[in-house]
Inverse folding.
């Protein structure tokens, strides 16, 4: 299954945003145990690319691993060289999108206005990240899709168990879930069971 197909099938991309990723494999195992298999490690933390390699080596095909917060072509290339199966950029970055597409990688590019979301799609982003989704909510996503129904939107930012179904009902292709799913405090405390339980609840919410 390609990363694109996996994300559309499972409906959730787990956004793992930590200061550093020394516990990346434990976090990944906890998420996969809860049923979430598309994992994004953001470059805002130290060791994201190394985390991708470690998780892929430890979990194999059980997880689909990507790199987020990619702003520059050099970062995109380093992530792909390190084993990333998809790239996520928070804005419309045509050069980053092209760097991924040229390597045959799935790219999720972020935007908020209809102009930005369409530009991300036209630049080659197969999935378009509506960010920050909390500003408009499900009704905004539905309004955007009315004239642009071909967009595969992935709302991110403020998305969790409470509103997951609302976003999907509004037409979201998948959901980006981060802080609500992987609290830094739980990781620091080694409470991976909490992450698994929350992941399972998220999976139930999108069924």
């Amino acid at each position: 299954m390609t990363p694109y197909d996996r994300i559309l099938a499972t409906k959730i991309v787990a956004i793992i945003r930590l200061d550093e990723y020394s516990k990346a494999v434990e976090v990944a195992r906890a998420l996969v145990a809860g049923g979430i298999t598309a994992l994004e490690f953001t470059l805002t933390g130290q060791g994201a690319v190394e985390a991708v390699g470690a998780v892929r080596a430890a979990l194999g095909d059980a997880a689909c691993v990507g790199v987020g917060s990619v702003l520059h072509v050099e970062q995109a290339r380093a992530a792909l060289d390190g084993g990333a199966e998809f790239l996520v950029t928070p804005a419309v970055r045509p050069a980053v999108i092209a760097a991924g597409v040229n390597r045959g990688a799935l790219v999720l590019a972020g935007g908020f206005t209809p102009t930005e979301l369409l530009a991300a799609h036209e630049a080659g982003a197969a999935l378009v990240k509506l960010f920050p989704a909390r500003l408009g909510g499900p009704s905004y996503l539905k309004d955007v899709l009315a004239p642009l129904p071909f967009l595969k939107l992935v709302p991110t930012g403020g998305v969790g168990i409470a509103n997951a179904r609302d976003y999907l009902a509004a037409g979201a292709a998948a959901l980006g879930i981060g802080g609500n799913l992987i609290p830094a405090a739980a990781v620091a405390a080694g409470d991976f069971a909490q992450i698994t339980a929350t992941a399972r609840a998220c999976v139930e919410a999108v069924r």
Remarks:
- The beta strands are 12-16, 38-42, 64-68, 86-89, 106-111, 127-130, 153-155, 175-177.
- The two ends are 20 Å apart (CA to CA).
